[in-house]
């Protein structure tokens, strides 16, 4: 079985706030319910546990540290990634992996500008 895009936690995005702590179900008042109520940046904070939705958790539900969650402070959407091919809306990293390792990867290269994944690297 080949590795597909879900291995990179790719999510289709909705808008320019997508994938940031301020639009996450675990975020509330610039704190994170899965990181022991640690302060996060609602505008540019993000992690691998992102779930789109209004902050529903007003109390801690876990005490993970930022390293465990993959917390970063940058706009992680495809529109801000060096691998987005603006001409055709494809991810050039996924394309390179498919071409370089066809026996390993079968990645859908079609991405949305507001989508995100954990391989995002800023421009």
**Treating each run of at least 4 consecutive H or I residues as one helix, how many helices?**
2
Biggest sheet layout: 3 strands, antiparallel
Query: From the alpha-carbon coordinates, what is the Rg to the nearest angstrom?
Result: 15 Å
Distance between the termini: 32 Å
Helix content: 10-25%
Q: Strands, helices and their partners?
A:
Elements lengths: L26 E2 L2 E2 L5 E2 L5 E2 L19 H4 L2 E2 L10 E2 L4 E2 H9 L23
Antiparallel strand pairs: 1-2, 2-3, 4-5, 6-7
Task: Please explain how this structure is put together.
The chain has helices spanning 66-69, 92-100; strands spanning 27-28, 31-32, 38-39, 45-46, 72-73, 84-85, 90-91. The chain is largely without helices or strands and 123 residues long. The chain has two domains: 1-14 and 77-123, no CATH class; 20-75, no CATH class. It is elongated and about 45 Å long. 30% of the residues are buried.
